[in-house]
Amino acid sequence: MSRASRAINIDDLRTLAKARLPRMVFDYIDGGAEDEITLRRSVDRYADYELQWNSLVDISKIDTSTKVMGNPNPLPFFISPTAASRLFWPKEGELAVARAAQKAGIAYSASTLASRTLEDISATAPGVPKFIQIYVWKDRGIVKEFLARAKAAGFTGCILTVDTAVAGYRERDPRNGFSIPPKVNSKTATQALARPGYLWDIVSGPKIGPVNFRNPGGGKGAGDVMGTINNLFDRTMTWKDAEWMANEWGGAFAVKGIATKEDAIRATEHGATAVWLSNHGGRQIDTSVPVVDLVPEVRDAVDSHIEVIADGGVRRGSHVLKLIARGATSVAIGRAYLYGLAAGGEAGVARAIQILKDDVERGLSLLGVPKLSDLDDTLVRLRR
Ligand SMILES: Cc1cc2nc3c(=O)[nH]c(=O)nc-3n(C[C@H](O)[C@H](O)[C@H](O)COP(=O)(O)O)c2cc1C
C-alpha cells in the first residue's frame, strides 16, 4: 500500500505532495493571489458555520447522491477543472485523475489547459460524465473547433470560466521562477535537483503544457500558461459572447466563477443551465467573498431547475455538507484531489475521494439526515 493510500485526511496528502514536488510546483498548487486572504478564508470560513443534528433517526441506509450538469452523481462532489495535471504526476497527469473518477463513478471536468488530450481522457473514463472547461479565445474559430472536438470525444457538459479575464497575481510563482512549462534557471534548477525522482519523471517524458489547442497567438508570454491566459483569451468578452457559446454548445452549460446573485441571474438569462460559484480557489482577485457565504442568496435568486455548483476550500466532507445544506446542488473539488495526485498519482486521487466520501457518509449519519437531498440549512447556523 502506498503512503498516499494510508493518508488519514487531505492535509496528510498535502504533506506528502510537498515532500514529492519541487517547491515551485507545490506552490503552484498550494498558493493563491496576492496576500492569499481569499485562499485562507475560503477554508477557515467553514468553521464559522456550526452544526446541529437530528437525534434518533434511522440511518441504516445513507443516500449521498445528487446530480451534476443533469447527470446522476453518487456523491455530492466531483472533479473541478485544473490546468496541466502532468506537472503534478508527469507520466499520466489527467489520466490518473480520470481513472480515479471513473472508479468512484463521479463526474470529471477537463481544463482547457489540460496536458493530456481530450480523446485520451475520454477513453480513460468512458463510464462517467465528462465536462470541458473553456476560456474564450479571441479567435472564435478555435472555440468552435474545440467544442466540436470535445463533443465528439464524449464530453456532455461545457463550463465557461469567467473569473479569469486576466491571470491573478500569484506571487509565489515569480518568486520561485515558476512557469508552465517549467524553464531551467538557477532558481528552478536548485528546487528541481532537490527532488531527483520528480526531475527524472519530467526529463524522461514529453514537454508539459496545454496539448488541446494549437498556440496561434504569439507575442509576449505566448507558449506558457499565464501568457496564454493574458494573450490569447479575449478581454472584450461579454454576456452576448457567453450566450453565443451556450448556443454553440447546445447542451448542459455552466458559468464558473460567479460571485453575485445578479450575475447568476444574467448567466441563466444567457443560456446557463448551471451557475458555478467560485473564486478560483483564491487564485484570482484577493479578498473575495467565501463561496459558502454566497450560496443561499444565489440559490434563492435563480429558478429551481438551475443547478447551483459551488467550490473553494473544500478539505473535509463537512465542508461539502455545509455547501449543500446552504443550497448548492453539488460541490467541485480542486486542491483536495491535486494534493492526492501529487502524493501518489491515481492511488492518491482515489484516497482523496475516499476520505471525502467517508466524511460525507459519516457526517450525514451524525447529522441524522440519511438522504443528502433532505439536508437543508435548518441544521447549520452562523457562529455568533
Ligand atoms: C493548480 C490549479 C489549477 C487550476 N486551473 C483551473 C483551470 O484551468 N480552469 C478553471 O476553470 N479553474 C481552474 N482552477 C480552479 C479550480 O477549478 C477550482 O475552482 C478551485 O481549485 C477550487 O478551490 P479549492 O482548490 O480550494 O478546492 C485551478 C485550481 C488550481 C488549484
Descriptive notes:
- By secondary structure, the chain is an alpha/beta fold.
- The chain has one domain: Aldolase class I (TIM Barrel, Alpha-Beta Barrel), CATH 3.20.20.
- The chain contains 15 helices and twelve strands.
- Helix 13 links the parallel strand 9 and strand 10.
- The structure holds flavin mononucleotide (FMN).
- Flavin mononucleotide binds next to helix 2 and helix 15.
Q: Label the overall shape.
A: globular
- Domains, number: 1
Helix fraction bin: 40-55%
Query: Within the CATH hierarchy, at the fold level, what is the topology?
Result: TIM Barrel
Question: Layout of helices and strands, plus pairs?
Answer:
Elements: H1 10-20, H2 23-30, H3 37-44, E1 49-51, E2 66-68, E3 71-73, E4 77-79, H4 94-104, E5 108-110, H5 118-124, E6 130-134, H6 140-152, E7 157-161, H7 172-176, H8 186-193, H9 196-203, H10 225-232, H11 239-249, E8 252-258, H12 261-269, E9 274-277, H13 291-301, E10 307-311, H14 317-325, E11 330-333, H15 335-367, E12 380-382
Helix pairs in contact: 1-15, 4-5, 4-15, 12-13, 14-15
Flavin mononucleotide binds at residues 28-29, 42, 80-83, 111, 113, 133, 161, 256, 278, 280-281, 283, 311-314, 333-336, 338.
